[in-house]
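User: Predict the full complex structure for these chains.
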Amino acid sequence: MNDKHKIIAGLILFVAIVTVPIWLNMGKAAPVPEPVLSAQAKAAKECVRETAYMKVEHMQLLDEWRDAVVREGKRVYVNSSGKEFNMSLSNTCLDCHSNKAEFCDRCHTYASADPYCWDCHIDNPKEKE
Amino acid sequence: MERSRREFLKIAGISAVGLGTAPAVKVFAAEVLGQPEMRLGKDALMAKHWGLVIDTRKLKTSEDIKPMVQACHKIHNVPELGNKNHEIKWIWEEAYHNAFPTMENKYLDERVENTPFPVLCNHCENPPCVRVCPTKATFKREDGIVEMDFHRCIGCRFCMAACPYGSRSFNFRDPRPFIAETNKKFPTRMKGVVEKCNFCEERLAVGQMPACVEASNGALIFGDLEDPHSKIREVLKENFTIRRKQTLGTGPSVYYIV
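Assistant: Here is the predicted structure of the two-chain assembly.
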């Protein structure tokens, strides 16, 4: 037990070094980004489903849409209030939410989510020439 | 107010049942009151077995085929890669002896010899590409169209090895920079994905004929092979037709009038 002091000092140093990232980043959390609605989306008031659902479940919805369109050839989505939508990411979602950078990317970047939808789907049907 | 133990237990029991069934009742109510629904478009063209007849008597030169190829490749964002090894094609032109190697004769009549044959995916009844696909990215729809789910394609290229018609192309490079004019309504593909003709299922879904058929000036007849009164069956009844490599047993849905 002669090295008691050395060991304790070493442990303290070790813990301090390991937790450096926590100390350095304390209180510096990036603010939660607010997605910006395009004028068209604002005017429409409600999305395909209610906003709370869309915020949490839009990826599940898109997944269901993809299977329905590709596998079953069903292309029309009728929501609970009876409104019809063409199930298409580029032609329906991004037609209304035409500001992908401010609407999609902001939260995806914040959440470090990197969906590869736009490797194939045209990201901005209107904006680009 | 005094309550007997028996009375208390009764009320407690009823309350417990009520609380327990509330979520179930809610689910049922939601199902009765307009759950979202997915359905076919009202203009969608339906068939039991889509097929195509190509009347090669109406096709004299490459100039007659070009509009079909261009129409198809333009709306489906098919890239124009300079390198022949990287070429992507959905519909293209082939000489008789390449399109029908099993039916080649030593002496061929001059017209057939010189006629360009448009070839594309045959949407086989018994598609070998579907059998070999390890991810079910390629599948056969109920209406006979052999379709691809690009999302699921892992680029293993088994389907390309299996297809006896060379109907499939692989994206060796990112195709986006090579698309002259992008059709915003249709997705592009990405590097590492196989692609092929889809019989314009996205157009059939909104009540339009395939793009090549529209651009063919009547040389291509598209319709339901299972419907004995359809135009395609009438054409098949009146003309002798051949199919590509049918001895292989794939059962192509594309017929050629020679």
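Chain B has a mean pLDDT of 92.
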